[in-house]
């Protein structure tokens, strides 16, 4: 067992006998790299996200990189994205030689990228927008897709937080709005395979590029040759090895089956927290009014005063409750400041959130005692 100093860790996973047996079956089968199990995982994901094409990849960062590559992004191109995201969203743009252009979030209630801010950042060099569904809460996709259409821009969704999030008024899922949807199955996400990721798209032209670029730019795969479909191959582009292996795909198949029920469990805990903290004198909760049914990847609170945050973090730590900060904004990182200049002050809402936000534990298999510990600790902090 993984011993923890925390009574309630920030996140935990739901892995059991089914996953263990699935991995064992792969090992017994003696085919370990991308093959039949990965193909089944991809087919199930394509059905779940209701997209024509789905590609399992090494991790979420590789998914984002392939998404950028498939759109042909390169030097001289600009991509608009939030600074309030995990750094990989932005690094993926830089890998291609393109330039990340940050835009502020919508408000202190809606921490997703602002459509109006996106519009202000568009130049003749803009080629794409990357949105990130913060915490599982969908961006304003109708407004963003309209801007993209008007300006001829591609839309990539970083849906790492949002597998299974849907709009309130229909069943369309996060990742299925833009040209490409990217997911991460890293060890603390809603669906875990350890390392792992996924790309979904409806566009055949992008799918062809993604399929090839995932595997060295080769025209046929080891699996095809194993099945007698091909004897040789050509290399038609500078590709990568971003393949997933069969053990992880086997875990993913089981995890996908559990996803909706686990997201529902997360939503129930989210509702409990919102009720318990509604009148809190020290903090407020973003996404109190939302346009979607969230996968509830994160539960974040915003302290009214940033000066109170150290005491709040210390109070929760003393009560055995682990916390985190999502996110230190990308534009504040040393590498970004050195490369793109100091942009402090350019994104006032993002910066306010960065200074006031705290993420508290939320995971599907939290027991009622753990939920109660978190509620007592948060409500017990009065400043
Ligand atoms: C986790 C995450 C990623 C990166 O995924 P990896 O699988 O860790 O490479 C990208 N963007 C966001 C928003 C994430 O949370």
Keywords:
single chain, 383 residues, alpha/beta, Aspartate Aminotransferase, domain 2, Aspartate Aminotransferase, domain 1, 2 domains, three-stranded antiparallel β-sheet, 13 helices, 39% helix, 14% strand, globular, binds pyridoxal-5'-phosphate
Task: Describe this entry's structure for a reader.
The chain has 383 residues and is α/β, with parallel strands linked by helices. It folds into 2 domains: 17-256, 3-Layer(aba) Sandwich (Aspartate Aminotransferase, domain 2), CATH 3.40.640; 260-380, Alpha-Beta Complex (Aspartate Aminotransferase, domain 1), CATH 3.90.1150. The protein has 13 helices and 12 strands. It has helices spanning 17-29, 36-49, 60-70, 87-95, 115-121, 141-151, 204-213, 222-226, 246-276, 309-318, 334-340, 348-356, 368-380, and strands spanning 53-57, 78-82, 99-103, 126-132, 154-158, 166-167, 180-184, 197-201, 283-284, 292-293, 299-303, 357-360. The chain has a 7-stranded mixed beta sheet with strand order 1-8-7-5-4-2-3, sandwiched between helices. α1 packs antiparallel against α9 (246-276), α2 runs parallel beside α9 and α3 crosses α7 (204-213). Pyridoxal-5'-phosphate is lined by residues 59-61, 85-86, 88-89, 132, 158, 160-161, 184, 186, 197.
């Amino acid at each position: 067992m993984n011993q923890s100093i925390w009574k309630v860790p920030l996140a935990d996973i739901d892995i059991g006998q089914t996953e263990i047996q699935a991995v064992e079956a792969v090992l017994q089968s003696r085919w370990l790299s991308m093959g039949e199990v990965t193909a089944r995982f991809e087919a199930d994901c394509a059905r779940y996200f209701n997209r024509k094409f789905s590609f399992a990849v090494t991790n979420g960062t590789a998914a984002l990189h392939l998404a950028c590559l498939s759109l042909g992004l390169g030097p001289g191109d600009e991509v608009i994205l939030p600074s309030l995201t995990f750094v990989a969203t932005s690094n993926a743009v830089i890998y291609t030689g393109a330039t990340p252009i940050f835009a502020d979030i919508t408000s202190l209630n809606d921490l997703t990228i602002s459509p109006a801010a996106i519009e202000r950042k568009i130049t003749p060099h803009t080629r794409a927008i990357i949105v990130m569904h913060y915490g599982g809460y969908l961006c304003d996709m109708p407004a963003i897709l309209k801007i993209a259409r008007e300006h001829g821009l591609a839309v990539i969704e970083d849906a790492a937080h949002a597998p299974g999030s849907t709009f309130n008024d229909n069943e369309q899922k996060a990742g299925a709005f833009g040209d490409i949807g990217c997911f991460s199955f890293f060890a603390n996400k809603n669906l875990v395979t350890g390392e792992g990721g996924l790309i979904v798209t409806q566009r055949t032209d992008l799918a062809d590029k993604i399929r090839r670029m995932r595997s060295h730019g080769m025209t046929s795969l080891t699996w095809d040759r194993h099945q007698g479909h091909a004897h040789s191959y050509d290399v038609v582009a500078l590709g990568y090895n971003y393949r997933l292996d069969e053990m992880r795909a086997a875990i993913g198949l089981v995890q996908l089956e559990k996803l909706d029920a686990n997201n529902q469990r997360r939503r129930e805990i989210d509702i409990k927290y919102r009720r318990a903290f509604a009148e809190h004198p020290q903090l407020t909760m973003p996404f109190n009014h939302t346009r979607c049914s969230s996968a509830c990847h994160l539960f974040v609170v915003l302290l009214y005063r940033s000066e109170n945050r150290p005491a709040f973090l210390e109070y929760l730590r003393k009560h055995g409750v682990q916390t985190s900060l999502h996110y230190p904004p990308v534009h504040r990182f040393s590498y970004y400041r050195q490369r793109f200049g100091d942009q402090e002050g350019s994104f006032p809402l993002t910066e306010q959130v960065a200074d006031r936000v705290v993420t508290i534990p939320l995971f599907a298999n939290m027991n009622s005692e753990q939920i109660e510990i978190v509620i007592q600790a948060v409500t017990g902090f009065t400043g």
